[in-house]
Amino acid sequence: MSTSGQPPLLVTGDEPLLDDMLRLSAAAGVVLDVAHDVTAAQRGWSAAALVLVGADQAAALARSEPPRRPHVHVVARGPVPDGLFRSALALGAENVAELPLSESWLVEVLTDAGDGAAGRGVAIGVVGGSGGAGATVFASALALTLGADRATLLVDADPLGAGIDRVLGMESIDGIRWDALHHTTGRLSARSLREALPRRNGVSVLTWAADRPTRLQAFAMREVLSAGQRGHGALVLDLPRHPDPVIEEVLARLDHVVVVSGVTVPAVTATSRVTARLVGLSATSHLVVRGSGGVDAAEIGRLLGLPVAAAMPDQRGLDEAIDLGAGPVRSRRGALARAARQVAGRVVLADGLAA
After folding, report:
1. pTM for the full model?
2. What's the confidence (pLDDT) of residue 1?
3. Could you tell me the residue range of the domain that residue 109 belongs to?
4. Mean per-residue pLDDT for 46-64?
C-alpha cells in the first residue's frame, strides 16, 4: 500500500485537540487533512502518509474496522484512559501520544511525514568473511552506487574499524559522528539525522570520532536504523565480523546481507563461520567473491551455501586511490564499481526500488 504524496490525516471532532494539532503541524511545516468524523476519515484513510486519530474518534473508528495500514497513531489531551489503548490496538496504531507530554515527538513524526519519510528504505548489511576481505571498501562502493539514484545512508557499525569516512575521503567534512548519538533518549527525526550528517554525492555517512568507544549502544543503533530508513531510500551498514548482541539485533532487521569472501582456503573457512551466524535470519543473503587465482566463484558459493552476486579480481591502484582521498570508485570500469553495480541491481530488483 502506497502512502506517499498525501498529507497526514487527522481524525478528530475535538476542537481543543484540533487547535493543538494545527499548532504542532505548523511547527513541523506540514498541512493536515482534517476529518471530523468516521465517514470523512474512511475516505482518506488508505492514501494518507500518516494518520493521527483523536481520542474522541478512536472507539468509533475502530468499530468501523478500517483496513490495516502502517503509521497510525492515537492522540489524546491529558491522561490517557485505559479504554483508549483497546481502541488503539483495534486500529493497529503504533503509539498512543499524550499531549502536552508528546508534543516534541509529534512534531518530529509530522516533520518526517511532510519530508516524505513515512516510507521505509531498504537496509543492506555488508560483512567480511575474514580479515582483509575488503568489506568496508565494498560497503562504501555499494553506497556510492546506490547514492547515484537515491538518498543513501552509509553507517559504520564497526567501532574497531579504520573509519569509513576515511575510505570515502570525507573525514574533513563537518557533521555529527556516533558520539553525538550515544546519549540519545528520544525518537530520532529522519530529517534531523539526514541534515546533521556529513554528506557528498548523494551519500550521508555516520562514522566514529577519533576517541571512539569500543562498543555500539543498542538504543542509538535502533534509532539510527529507524530514522535512517525513514529518511533515505537505502541504508548500507558496514558490519563487524565479531559477535555482538547489538549486531545480532541489527542482522535480524536487515533486508539483505552481503558477505565478502576471499578465495583462499583460510578465507573461505573463516567465511563459513560468519555465514553460520546468518542462518535463520529473514534477510536475503548474497556472496561477493574477491580475489584472483583461478578459483571458481560458483564453487565457493556452493561450499558456503550462498548465491554469488558478484566476483571481482583485485583492483590495481585501489589502495592508493583511497589513501589519496579519491574514494573507492574512481572509475566506473573498475572491478569494484562493476561488482557494486551488480549487487545494487539485485537489491533494486528484489525490493522494487525506484530511482
Report:
1. 0.73
2. 39
3. 9-114
4. 95
